[in-house]
Amino acid sequence: MTFFKQYNFPVCFTRAANVFGPGQPLYRIIPRCVYFFKTGRKLQLHGGGHSVRSFIHMRDVSDGTIRIARQAPAGECYHFSTDLYLPIRDVVRMIADQMAVRFEDAVEIVGERPGKDAAYLLDSTKARKTLGWEAKISLEQGIAETIDWVNRFENELESLPKDYVHKA
User: Fold this and answer.
1) Do the Cβ atoms of 18 and 24 come closer than 8 Å?
2) Where in the chain are the domains?
3) CATH topology of domain 2-155
4) Residue pLDDT, tens place only, 34-65
């Protein structure tokens, strides 16, 4: 923003929380859940999964980003999210249902991660009104796509890290 204000640098800003879809790293909750359920591993659900999130498919975020590049004035900031806010537990249960896995058998409730936020809530009204953008891919559809992706690439995914590793 400093470069925009000082030098009129042509930049816009975006924020999107909980982007998901096929190809995402396995430490993210949706592909991790799918992969663990597929391979019979227990998923650790931190704090019982009560944190609230709005999950948005990567194609919807990409569509919004392209709209910004084509039509947004410099210096603006846009949020991309859906209006569906769910506890992570409900998302994990939705995945278990789609995969015909019994939630109680596939999940282990563990303590909360230090510093975990209770909710990530973004308002995408500005993107909808000024860019004509809207989220089009439902959470259920995106989960089904992620399940298909894990099924197609299970052998390749086996060699990838399953846990987040912070790089200093």
Assistant:
1) no
2) 2-155
3) Rossmann fold (3.40.50)
4) 999 999 999 999 999 999 999 999 999 999 99
